[in-house]
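Subject — a protein and its fold
Fields — amino acid sequence, structure tokens
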Amino acid sequence: MGRFTHQHRVRWPEVDLAGVVYFAHFVNYFEAAETEWVRSHGIEYGEMLETFGICMPRASIHCDYHAPARLDDLLDIEVRRGRLGDTSFTLAFEIFAEPEKRCLADGTFVIVTVSRSTFRPIRIPDKLREMLETLNVAE
């Protein structure tokens, strides 16, 4: 199993006048890390969806905030795997501020694999399941 970490530098459009990241951007950070994790397997996200004939809507999104992220912070967004079912799976995320590795937020996505044509749940494609099995399991 492996750890996947995506780095992001907080930019001006992501913060309010106090220099603190607007809360909704944390979900964007989670999605960016997910996208880069897929890319690390040699396939782009959109290409994966098209090749596998799926869409991956979120059934649930959860985020707990522990400390603010600020302008110019370098963030490490870690991706781990939670539950792995037949038609859905959970990705777990933690966001840390460098260099002290202070945990700013953690959260989860429950993702369902659905047919692109019918939008009904279908079994997680074998290749995606293999990719998911490479991630560290969330505790």
Remarks:
- The first strand starts at residue 4 and ends at 9.
- The longest helix spans residues 25-39.
- The helical segments are 25-39, 45-52, 126-132.
